């Protein structure tokens, strides 16, 4: 089955996804019968393209890799869509699936939420790695997708391409999830690890996390726990089927944790981790983000660096812990592909 895809936003994640499509096209077709034709790309900084016959992915990656604009893709007369804003592009393009990959604004969830609504309203499936709309509007967007009989999938919003939602909906089917608890922010885990293992102080470790590209544009979102909060709200509303808002959950970041505290905990056989957790009891969800001193026997205590991990407490299986990357170009691009393959399986 051939899928027509449009990318709204073509930064790190968009280019990571295009790169996978380019490299794995043959394998995806042979193994799964999945064929992708990218018909439109719209990016605020990099320009827009509408090519109903299909965009040459290698050419786009080459241009963007050289820091050029999509305006250089083809001569002016041959180029369509350059003047369309993202909302017009979503409406006018002939895509079946919109990959919404614009930047995350955790406070307003815009403009991404407007893009997703437009796509769903015009009968297109949506996949996104954007945490804003998933954290602030998941129940509404899920219901709109249901009404329009299309998919709204968000695998890349939590733990990038490490499967969380696809695992819960398939592998854990039939279980009741009692609690989900884990490390959902790579930047803070990296800082805590560096303070303990490499004798770095908080500022040095944060600067390194920024340099390595783990941190959000405004790292307050990481160190004050807002990013982990958005992710635990998403897990509460998707996996525990709740309807909570970020303001319903308690939040504390790692700015109160000094290197001395980290080293003292180590002496006692403990490790500080920024833990996000959510549980459902009697229909009520309780979610929180806070630094916790875990015994080294806890599987979450062994998760170091920018890695993420989640422990699911399930009625039939007991505790299951997964660990994997929580950010990155190829890793999040992989999440976008996973969601598209899930749509493909459903439609095939
Ligand atoms: N800033 C985030 C982190 C990126 O450090 O985990 C992935 O959401």
Explain what this protein looks like in three dimensions.
By secondary structure, the protein is of the alpha/beta class. The protein is 40% helix and 22% strand. It has 12 helices and 12 strands. The chain has helices at residues 12-32, 57-65, 86-92, 112-121, 131-147, 165-171, 186-197, 202-211, 220-223, 226-238, 259-267, 329-347; strands spanning 2-8, 35-43, 47-50, 97-100, 125-128, 152-153, 177-183, 250-251, 270-281, 284-295, 308-314, 318-324. The strands form 2 sheets. It has a 6-stranded mixed sheet with strand order 3-2-1-4-5-6, sandwiched between helices. Strands 8-10-9-7-11-12 form a 6-stranded mixed sheet. β11 and β12 (318-324) form a beta hairpin. α5 runs parallel beside α10 (226-238). The termini are close together. The site of L-homoserine has 10 residues, from α7.
